[in-house]
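Customer escalation, tier 2.

The customer says the design service returned an amino acid string that "doesn't look like it belongs to this structure." They asked us to rerun it and document both sides in this ticket. The original C-alpha cells are below, unchanged.
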C-alpha cells in the first residue's frame, strides 16, 4: 500500500507519524475539556463533532472504551467515515473547523485500563536475562518454548506519555540475605514493549484467530522495572512491587486495521506448540522501534533500535493463552508484549541487557555513563511501521524519572 492523500497537507508529509493511512485514536484537552480525537498530520480532529450515523453515546465519554465495546462493524464504519471526511476536498469546509493543532494539547489516557497483564515473550530478552542469572546452558526456563509466560499487573499503574515517574522505594537485599533493607531502587530500568488493547469481551477459551479479531489496536509501552527490588521479591512467585511503580503508554491507539499491511509471521518454532496456540497466519507486525535516553537538560542518545517482529509469541497467542483457563477478558484489557530485544547488543530493549547487569556501562553521546536510570533522566520510546512513502507511527512514549519521595518518619528505623 502507498500513501493515501489527504486535504490536510501535513498528513502527506512522508515523515509524519499520522498520515491518512494511520488515523490513530486518542483523547485530548485543548482547555475546553477532554474529548475523543484522531491524529491527522500535525492536527487532531474532534471526532464527536464530525461522526455521523453512529450512536452519539459512543462519544459521550472521553474514552474509546464505548467504541471498542460496539464491535468490529462499528470500528470499520468509523474508520471508513473518517477516511472519507479527510480525503475528499468536498468535506474541508465542514470538517476543517473541528481540527485543532496538536502542539500544545494535553494528551490523556486514550482508554480506561480495566486490567493489565505483562508477558515475558521475547526470546532474545529471555535468553539475555537467563544467561546473566543462570548461565547460557540454562538461559530459558524449561517451559519457555511452549508457553507465553506472563503475570497479572496493576491497571492503576498505567499512565500516559509525559507523566513523570517517581523512583520507587522497596525492600532490597542487604549484606545478609535474610536481612533486607528499605531503600530507593538503585537499579531502576525501562522495558521496551508493545501493548495490545482488547476491544471485545470473552467468555471461555478462544482461538488465536478469534483473539486476533478481538484486538482493537496497539500502543508503545514502557514497563518501568526496579531490578533490585525484583531480585529480592520475585522468588517464588515472580514480580510484584518491582513492576507496580508505573507503566507508561503512548497516547495514540494505532488500530489493527492501520497495521494490516505490515503483518509478518512469528519465528520458526524450536518446539512444536500445542494446538490451541498455533497460528492460522501471520500474527506479528513489522514495526521499527527505538529507545532514546536524555539526562536532564541535555540532548538525547538513541540507545537501542529493534523491531516488534522479534517477538516469539504474538499478542493474539498471548490473549488466547490468557483465556485458556476460562479467564474472562474485558473491553479495556491491556496486554504488555514483554521486552522486545533484537539479536545484537544495540538492539537490547532494557538497560539490564545493555549494561549486562551493570557490569558494562553504556556511554551516552554526552560522555555520561549509565548502568541504570538516574534521577532527571527522560526515556522516550518511538515506533513506526514503514510503507511506500509513508509511516504509521505511534507518537512518543516518554517519562522522566523524579527522585524518590522523602521517607516518612513512621517508616524510619
Amino acid at each position: 500500500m502507498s500513501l493515501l492523500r489527504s486535504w490536510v497537507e501535513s498528513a502527506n508529509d512522508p515523515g509524519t507519524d499520522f498520515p491518512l493511512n494511520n488515523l490513530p485514536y486518542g483523547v485530548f484537552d485543548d482547555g475546553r475539556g477532554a474529548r475523543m480525537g484522531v491524529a491527522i498530520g500535525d492536527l487532531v480532529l474532534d471526532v464527536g463533532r464530525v461522526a455521523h450515523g453512529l450512536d452519539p453515546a459512543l462519544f459521550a465519554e472521553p474514552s474509546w472504551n464505548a467504541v471498542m465495546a460496539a464491535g468490529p462493524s462499528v470500528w470499520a464504519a468509523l474508520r471508513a467515515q473518517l477516511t472519507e471526511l479527510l480525503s475528499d476536498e468536498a468535506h474541508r469546509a465542514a470538517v476543517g473547523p473541528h481540527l485543532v493543532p496538536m502542539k500544545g494539547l494535553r494528551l490523556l489516557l486514550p482508554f480506561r485500563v480495566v486490567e493489565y497483564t505483562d508477558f515475558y515473550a521475547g526470546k532474545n530478552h529471555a535468553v539475555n536475562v537467563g544467561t546473566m542469572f543462570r548461565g547460557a546452558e540454562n538461559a530459558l526456563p524449561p517451559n519457555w518454548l511452549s508457553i507465553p509466560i506472563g503475570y497479572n499487573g496493576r491497571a492503576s499503574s498505567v499512565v500516559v506519555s509525559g507523566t513523570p515517574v517517581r523512583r520507587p522505594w522497596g525492600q532490597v537485599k542487604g549484606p545478609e540475605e535474610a536481612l533486607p533493607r528499605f531503600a530507593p531502587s538503585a537499579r531502576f530500568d525501562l522495558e521496551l514493549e508493545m501493548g495490545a488493547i482488547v476491544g471485545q469481551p470473552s467468555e471461555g477459551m478462544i482461538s488465536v484467530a478469534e483473539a486476533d479479531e478481538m484486538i482493537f489496536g496497539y500502543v508503545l509501552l514502557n514497563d518501568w522495572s526496579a531490578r533490585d527490588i525484583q531480585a529480592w521479591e520475585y522468588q517464588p512467585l515472580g514480580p510484584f512491587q518491582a513492576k507496580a511503580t508505573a507503566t507508561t503508554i503512548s497516547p495514540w491507539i494505532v488500530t489493527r486495521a492501520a497495521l494490516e499491511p505490515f503483518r509478518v509471521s512469528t519465528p520458526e518454532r524450536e518446539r512444536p506448540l500445542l494446538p490451541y496456540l498455533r497460528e492460522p497466519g501471520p500474527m506479528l507486525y513489522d514495526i521499527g522501534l527505538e529507545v532514546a535516553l536524555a539526562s536532564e537538560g541535555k540532548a538525547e542518545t538513541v540507545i537501542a533500535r529493534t523491531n516488534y517482529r522479534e517477538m516469539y509469541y504474538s499478542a493474539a497467542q498471548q490473549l488466547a493463552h490468557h483465556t485458556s483457563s476460562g479467564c474472562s477478558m474485558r473491553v479495556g484489557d491491556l496486554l504488555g508484549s514483554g521486552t522486545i530485544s533484537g539479536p545484537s547488543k544495540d538492539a537490547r530493549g532494557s538497560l539490564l541487557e545493555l549494561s549486562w547487569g551493570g557490569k558494562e556501562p553504556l556511554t551516552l553521546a554526552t560522555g555520561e555513563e549509565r548502568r541504570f536510570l538516574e534521577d532527571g533522566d527522560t526515556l522516550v520510546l518511538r515506533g513506526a511501521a514503514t510503507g511506500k512513502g509513508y509511516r504509521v507511527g505511534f507518537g512518543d512514549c516518554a517519562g522522566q524519572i523524579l527522585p524518590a519521595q522523602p521517607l516518612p518518619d513512621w517508616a524510619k528505623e
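Tier 2 assessment: The sequence is consistent with the input. The mean pLDDT is 97. The domain at 9-108 is CATH 2.30.30.230 (SH3 type barrels.). Sent an explanation to the customer and offered a walkthrough call.
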